[in-house]
Amino acid sequence: MAQEWNVTGDMLEACNCEAECPCFFLSPPTEGDCKTIIGWHIDNGKFGDIALDGLNVLFAAYVPGLVSDGNWKAALYLDERANEEQKNALTQIFSGQSGGHPAILGSFIGEVLGVKSVPIEYQAEGKRRSIRIPDIAEADIEAITDANGNLVTLSNPPLQLSPEPTQVISRSKRLSYHDYNLQWDLEGKSGNYLAFAYEGP
């Protein structure tokens, strides 16, 4: 019988597309391909009896065209503070092996570049979100606001990062990645953040 699990918390996404990323509407990326980082901070989580509270996860992917066409090259990074049981649980959840919403992302992956245990820093403060792995990856985004200072949001796009229907549209102050022969250093591009709630199987 598959293990029951659930995780909730805060997540961010940043990529090389112009705001708002066309990939959420199943349209071609702005530049023909998509270079993206997705980060999660787990506020509360359990995989069976294994607690996952406070841990971070980062997913980096190169998407060669339409997201729905698949063939993504992807790498998964796990919080080095996690013990072996927790690392196994995080791998199963965020690779999509244990079902739930992450399995949707997992279905697009054509090549797994690797899974690493690394120090991951995730910060959420006001309208800003950031995630960082020293010497490997960094995303720093800030929400876009309207003329009255209200957050600009997107609800129920065809491609959703979480069952939570509303994400806050943001712009990146920094987006960088250097690993597995993939490299990008960008700023002023698309970003989003939102609450997430996943469960499975």
Q: Helix segment count? A: 2
- Radius of gyration, in Å, reads 16 Å
Unreliable spans: none
Separation of the first and last Cα atoms: 10 Å
Profile the largest sheet: 13 strands, mixed
Report the β-strand fraction as a percent range: over 45%
N-to-C order of helices and strands: EEEEEHHEEEEEEEE
The overall number of domains is 1
Q: How would you sum up the global shape?
A: globular
Write the layout of secondary structure elements.
Layout: E1 5-15, E2 34-47, E3 50-51, E4 56-63, E5 72-79, H1 84-94, H2 102-106, E6 109-118, E7 121-125, E8 128-133, E9 137-143, E10 153-155, E11 166-179, E12 182-186, E13 190-200
Parallel strand pairs: 5-6
Antiparallel strand pairs: 1-2, 1-13, 2-3, 2-4, 4-5, 7-8, 8-9, 9-11, 10-11, 11-12, 11-13
Textual characterization of the structure:
This protein has 201 residues and is mainly beta. It has helices spanning 84-94, 102-106, and strands at 5-15, 34-47, 50-51, 56-63, 72-79, 109-118, 121-125, 128-133, 137-143, 153-155, 166-179, 182-186, 190-200. Strands 1, 2, 3, 4, 5, 6, 7, 8, 9, 10, 11, 12 and 13 form a 13-stranded mixed sheet that branches. The protein is globular and about 50 Å long. The relative contact order is 0.24.
